[in-house]
Amino acid sequence: MTAVVAPPTTDGLSVRGLSVRFGGLVAVDNLDLDAPEGRLTGLIGPNGAGKTTTFDACSGLNTPSEGSVHLFGNDVSRLGPPARAQRGLGRTFQRMELFNSLSVADNVALGREAAMAGSNVLRQIVASRHEQDEMMEAAAGAMELCGISDLADRRASALSTGQRRLVELARALAGRFRILLLDEPSSGLDHNETARFGDILERVMAERGVGLLLVEHDMSLVMRVCHHVYVLDFGKLIFEGSTDDIRDSEIVRAAYLGAEEV
Fold this sequence. Notes:
The protein is 39% helix and 23% strand. It has a six-stranded mixed sheet, with helices on both faces. Strands 2-1-4-5 form a four-stranded antiparallel sheet, covered by helices on one side. It has a domain at 11-77 and 204-257: Rossmann fold. The chain is α/β, with parallel strands linked by helices.
């Protein structure tokens, strides 16, 4: 019997039958995944499970061997990262990349400037007064949402790891993105900083209604904020469901959680 493949969702990010191979290594194997707007979706699994490779395929940084990537019902599988960003897909990375010599406000404003320049490269050189005002307004709103307005004039080089993570998130929120891929955003944070980061993610969901797809190893954060979770192991989807489903799954415990209490 042929398996029935669900059509891609039209209200966010969908991947269907996604496979990524590097030579003889199958990093992602026939993955179906949905991350709609208005939902915080988790993607978890042990190191080497294929999570970041999935993000790279979704954002256009690698080419799938098979399958497709859709944004809001449109097939973007053949489009590069800038074109996907123009269609509403944003991304953060495990390794933070801030401009240390710039202020927090200028770092955050780059999120909107990059989105504007994507449609007209000349805007990276000359921006109108209206465009400049738009960039600073977007930056101010994103900083307020992330609770870092008081850091606006501080240089990025003077920030703690927790503050840098929030600047990175604010920069993504300053863009016109409707779906954000967050790759281990709590990495390097202590317990209190992670709790604050979770508060901000919940606020982003409540106020912006964007879709968030979260790769994360901190299971307390995943279980607190995610509405739906996908679990990868050796590139294969082994389980999906609510956080309650994940907590009760022996399959997930055996593959990933082990004896850890969640």
